[in-house]
Design goal:
By secondary structure, this protein is of the alpha+beta class. The protein is 52% helix and 14% strand.
Length: 69
């Protein structure tokens, strides 16, 4: 089995829809209320171990990069 297919299936089955929505809200709150102050709007962000992309999708910056398996 190709690793990308395996990871997609793993991530899809790891959390149910309610849990995914709750995690998104937690990350949105963390980024807006706490983390954004450390990242300038004209900066570049690299999210290593991006997973579902909750952090990188909620942070505001000029360029975004995310890597994972």
């Amino acid at each position: 089995m190709e690793i990308t297919n395996f990871l997609a299936r793993l991530y899809d089955n790891r959390f149910n829809l309610k849990e995914k929505k709750e995690r998104l809200q937690v990350w949105k709150t963390l980024c807006v209320c706490f983390l954004q102050r450390y990242i300038a709007e004209d900066s570049m962000v690299l999210d290593i171990g991006v997973g579902y992309g909750e952090f990188i999708n909620h942070i505001q910056c000029k360029e975004k990069y995310g890597v994972d398996l």
